[in-house]
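Work Package 4 report. The design task specified in the project plan requires that, given a folded chain encoded as structure tokens, an amino acid be chosen for each position. We show below one input record used in the internal validation round.
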């Protein structure tokens, strides 16, 4: 944990006009929402990503998080006061996930050793409570709703490695920190590996165009149990709050929308928003029937569908991440998250999940990534 001089100025209370944010993973779902939030609040924004950023009002910092020399060069002449770390890279095993993703946090913060850092906010997720992909919900996990004070699982987990690198850097460099444990994030991005909103919309488009069933790909437990989700804009709001309010310093926080739902209620409603014939909407039928099994055989039809409908992206792999949605919806247990801690600390943000989905669908339609729905 960070040790601070109690007589020193609180690093979260500096003049907002002098706040400079470095958003790591700025092109992703969470990073994009953070850039929007920070620009709206008048921050100076630096956007670090491998391909750089062309966003108006943002200074691009192209760098490879897996190359310490690239980071040192890219960050040599920047002086952020706040870092928002939203990036990760999936590897074949959890041991590799730990090595790669822990090192990215360590090397990024080491490259900023001379920067006037006040706060670093890190995004993780509910795998903190459920375990990593290769041991997902496989052992003893906490009872729902999940609380931030649950002990770590006795399983290697790259989220724990990222936290430990954050804590160690905070101790050395004197900044405060926050960790934000989101559920599945609903937000705008293209080419993202974890994008349930766009994945579901693409599945509905294939169902509509190829006369396929719009079948829930997950488990009976997910279909019938309570669950929640996280809007990317709400996650961004909490990260900025924790970075600037003393009540958010040196704490982990869950972050979900604040409502709960059952997929057996939500799935038909999303289908209606996506123009799916109600007769083709199906719940689970026995064992999960993952999107990867249902829809991979039909991916070859997407280029012709995109051309016929005037869509902007003919490469379905840039739109749909079947594996991630299958993993989230295939869990054999109810998943609900407690938000009491940040509410008591003063963060009262809320989103209605159905509206988060429908507003996202509208944005993807405006970008011509999914088709308009006949009204």
């Amino acid at each position: 944990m960070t040790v601070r001089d109690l007589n020193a100025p609180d690093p979260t209370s500096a003049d907002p006009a002098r706040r400079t944010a470095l958003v790591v993973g700025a092109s992703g779902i969470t990073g994009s929402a953070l850039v929007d939030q920070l620009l709206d609040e008048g921050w100076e924004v630096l956007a670090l990503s491998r391909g750089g950023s062309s966003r108006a009002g943002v200074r691009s910092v192209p760098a490879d998080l897996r190359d310490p020399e690239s980071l040192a060069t890219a960050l040599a002449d920047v002086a952020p006061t706040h870092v928002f770390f939203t990036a990760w890279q999936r590897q074949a095993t959890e041991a590799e996930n730990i090595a790669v993703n822990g090192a990215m946090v360590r090397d990024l913060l080491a490259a900023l050793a001379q920067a006037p850092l006040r706060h670093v906010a890190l995004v993780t997720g509910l795998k903190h409570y459920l375990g990593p992909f290769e041991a997902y919900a496989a052992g003893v996990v906490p009872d729902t709703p999940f609380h931030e004070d649950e002990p770590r699982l006795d399983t290697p987990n790259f989220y724990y490695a990222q936290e430990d690198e954050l804590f160690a850097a905070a101790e050395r460099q004197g900044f405060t920190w926050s960790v934000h444990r989101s559920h599945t994030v609903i937000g705008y991005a293209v080419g993202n590996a974890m994008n349930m909103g766009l994945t579901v919309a693409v599945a509905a488009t294939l169902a509509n165009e190829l006369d396929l069933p719009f079948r829930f790909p997950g488990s009976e437990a997910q279909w019938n149990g309570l669950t929640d989700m996280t809007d990317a804009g709400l996650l961004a709001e909490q990260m900025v709050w924790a970075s600037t309010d003393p009540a958010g310093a040196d704490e982990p926080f869950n972050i979900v929308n604040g409502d709960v739902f059952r997929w057996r209620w939500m799935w038909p409603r999303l289908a209606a928003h996506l123009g799916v014939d109600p007769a083709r909407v199906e719940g689970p039928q026995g064992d999960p029937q993952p999107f990867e099994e249902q829809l991979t055989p039909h991916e070859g039809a997407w280029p012709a569908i995109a051309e016929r409908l005037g869509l902007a992206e003919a490469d379905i792999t840039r739109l749909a991440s079947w594996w991630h949605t299958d993993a989230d919806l295939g869990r054999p247990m109810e998943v609900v998250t407690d938000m009491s801690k940040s509410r008591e600390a003063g963060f009262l943000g809320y989103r209605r999940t159905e509206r988060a989905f429908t507003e996202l669908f509208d944005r993807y339609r405006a970008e011509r990534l999914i088709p308009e729905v006949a009204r």
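Residues 1-14 have pLDDT under 50 and may be disordered. Validation will be extended to a larger panel in the next phase.
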